[in-house]
Amino acid sequence: MSDLKSEQSGQAAREAGAPKKLFIKTYGCQMNVYDSERMAEALGGQGYEPTEDMAQADMILLNTCHIREKAAEKVYHELGRLRPLKDAKPDLKIGVAGCVAQAEGEEIMRRQPLVDLVVGPQSYHRLPQLEAKAGKGGKAIDTDFPEEDKFEHLVARPKARRAPAAFLTVQEGCDKFCAFCVVPYTRGAEVSRPVDRVLGEARDLVERGVREITLLGQNVNAYHGEDAKGRTRTLAQLIWALNEIDGLERIRFTTSHPNDMSEDLIEAHGTCAKLMPYLHLPVQSGSDHILKRMNRSHTAESYLRVIERIRAARPDILLSSDFIVGFPEESDADFEATLELIREVRYGQAYSFKYSSRPGTPAAERALVDEGAASERLARIQALLTEQQREVQDEMIGREVSVMFERKGRHEGQMVGKSEYLHAVHVGDNPAQVGDIRRVRIIGSTTNSLRGALI
Q1: CATH, domain range 400-454
Q2: For the chain, which residues make up each domain, given as ranges?
Q3: What's the rounded Cα separation, in Å, for the pair 137 and 84?
Q4: Strands of the sheet with 250-254, listed across from one edge
Q5: Model confidence pLDDT, tens digit, residues 130-154
Q6: Whole-angstrom distance, CA of residue 69 vs CA of residue 204
Q7: Is 155-394 in CATH node 3.80.30.20?
Q8: Residues forming a β-bridge with 318
Q9: DSSP of 37-78, one letter per residue?
């Protein structure tokens, strides 16, 4: 009865001209988080405002990711769970966006007829038109790679205050074609946004209270956007231009490829005060044989030499990486080479995954490593990475760091923020406000965060 009353109340509100409600569930990477924000803004012009209550939504969008294992099946499972909502509210629109939408296309609507629209990651600027078509009882799908720049066609961002940290996409797509990766097929070729548009959006974010911006791209350090004079600019040159924006205090970027760590970008880590001392630089394996089979186009040795140059420029930098274990043909010796590289680099943070095939990628047709062996290798690599992370965190005790506070903690008077090294830091008895950047002395270390005291 309460659900019926809720629906009747929602229907009455819509008839009275109240805003429609939009619920977006975001899967995967930071770029999808950014995309979800822009989709919400695009639909704002259609009368939608965000809601965190799926049951109250007039439209539900699943912004999907195709990186993890069985990503498409998980989306279909989630869609099945939405059936009762659709049955109770026939006018409810359900959409699938993101990389699974790009990969599956019309198959999504065939398997789940409750879906009203499907939109790929390069077409979400067309959401208002797709929503209008779906609103007339039709099915709307757009998984093209349009020639126009989607960012140029997006609506201006609203002037509401923002959290102090924000993502900003500057590059999309990838030309590397790693044997395990679907990104070139779902996001397309590498495209970089023009410098002036990036700077304009960054200034707008700062005006709304943002003090830290993370530049996003599938291969962000391959950025090659044009400036107002038509000159191609590198990521380092873009960072230096962002450095001039008053009120922007911190700059980060992710995710990078080892082959695109140019000398000017390495130098910027040592000379640009606003560029934070944290770098996520995926290597995937320490075995040259496996790296070649992955089509990574770098070797373990070339990766280590890049790390040496980065640490020469910024000795205190915290390094993070990605590792895939159990890749087809990976032997015990190949895996041991990966462990050796990890020991040599010593990461402050890293992510490790057991290989799972992605349909359509070159590696998908290769024979898999024994499941038991792959699981055992994953456990071993995660144990080593966890040990290194804990050691790096413990070494922070007694040091002073700069923390930007982002939210209140669980306890009275507690605030939580991020250090320049991207460590989560909890500070009690804290009069600081959200957005404040304060000096903090680290007094303790827990599993995934640090405890500090204001200086």
Answers
A1: 2.40.50
A2: 2-142, 155-394, 400-454
A3: 19
A4: 165-169, 212-216, 250-254
A5: 888 887 777 889 887 655 555 665 6
A6: 37
A7: yes
A8: 278
A9: HHHHHHHHTTTEEE-S-GGG-SEEEEEE--SSTTHHHHHHHH
Token pair in block for residue 18: 């109240």
Q: How many CB atoms lie within 10 A of CB 178?
A: 21
C-alpha separations of 58 from 152, 309, 386 in Å: 27, 52, 43
3-state SS class at 280: strand
Please list, in sequence order, all residues whose beta carbon lies within 8 angstroms of the beta carbon of residue 412, skipping any fewer than 6 positions away: none
The pair of structure tokens assigned to 247 is 């009120």
CB of 142 closer than 8 Å to CB of 189 = no
pLDDT in tens, 346-386: 999 999 999 988 878 899 889 999 999 999 999 999 999 99
CATH number of 2-142: 3.40.50.12160
The amino acid present at 202, given as its one-letter code, is A
Q: Is the dihedral of CA 286, 290, 293, 299 positive or negative?
A: positive
Q: In Å, how far are 73, 187, 217, 381, 406 from 69, measured between CA atoms? A: 9, 18, 21, 19, 32
Contacts 24+ apart (CB under 8 A), 69-77: 69/356, 70/356, 71/27, 71/99, 71/100, 72/100, 72/103, 72/104, 75/27, 75/100, 75/104, 75/108, 76/108, 76/111, 76/112
The pTM assigned to this predicted structure is 0.83
